[in-house]
Amino acid sequence: MSGKPKLTYFNGRGRMESIRWLLAAAGVEFEEDFLETREQYLKLIQDGHLLFDQVPLVEIDGMKMVQTKAILSYIAGKHNLYGKGLKERAFIDTYVEGTTDLMQMILTLPFSPPEAKKKNLPLIIEKAKNRYFPAYEKALKQHGQGFLVGNQLSWADVHLLEAILMVEEKESTVLSEFPLLQGFKTRISNMATIKKFLQPGSQRKPQPDDKYVATVMKILKEG
Ligand code: GTS
After folding, report:
1. 8 C-alpha vs ligand 1 centroid, how far in Å?
2. Ligand 1 centre from 56 Cα, in Å?
């Protein structure tokens, strides 16, 4: 055992991507086991490794953790990315829930029928521009510290950067009316650990393609 966390998921973004981001931001090296077949997934269940028969699975500090949010909270707490005190933690949770809602809409898009994809993408961009990014722009302005919470990097910042880049992949000019978010993006992207994760060859995963969607469907669907 290397002592590094071991991530078990599909070879793509999905729910695991935010976990990869957070570990990378914390400067933690991790190993990955990619599910390619339904048999691998069923074996994990048979061996009792998946509490709710679901992935992501992260083996860390002697635990076999499932449930994305619990995994992320543990990593954030362990690596000093979860604020100081209960109130900072409450703000971090709030911001993270917002970015989770936004990213969730994008994550599910490739799994929707073609008509829904066409219809929903503009709605997601519209929500990013009119609901989510204005809220984060305002939060940065009010807080005035360059970070969303406190005076150092937190899970909320890492999650927001991930969300910004995801929306920009869909519409590159989406930040044009958000100057503080533009500055935030540049600053956080240039922090050493994050900069490294953003470079080609890192464990960051590409946007899902048809092959990824087919693999996930094949593994999760019976028959
Ligand atoms: N609340 C869980 C979490 O956040 O971790 C949900 C996990 C979940 O639904 N995982 C899916 C799964 O294992 C895979 S994916 O949605 O991440 O692609 N589904 C199998 C099942 O039977 O629910």
Report:
1. 12
2. 7
Residues having CB within 6 Å of any atom of ligand 1: 14-15, 53-56, 67-68, 216, 220
| Peptide bond preceding 56 in cis form (omega within 30 of 0) | yes
pTM for the full predicted model: 0.97
Are residues 76 and 155 in contact, defined by beta-carbon separation less than 8 angstroms? yes
As beta bridge partners, residue 32 has: 7
**Which tokens is 121 given?**
């993408």
Largest CA distance in the chain: 54
The closest residue, in CA terms, to atom 20 on ligand 1 is 54
pLDDT per residue rounded down to tens, the chain (223 residues) = 569 999 999 999 999 999 999 999 999 999 999 999 999 999 999 999 999 999 999 999 999 999 999 999 999 999 999 999 999 999 999 999 999 999 999 999 999 999 999 999 999 999 999 999 999 999 999 999 999 999 999 999 999 999 999 999 999 999 999 999 999 999 999 999 999 999 999 999 999 999 999 999 999 986 5
Residue 9 CA to ligand 1 centre (angstroms): 10
Query: From residue 170, how far is each of 15, 48, 121 by CA, in Å?
Result: 19, 39, 8
Angstrom distance (rounded) from CA 34 to CA 8:
6
Q: Which pair of tokens denotes residue 54?
A: 């679901």
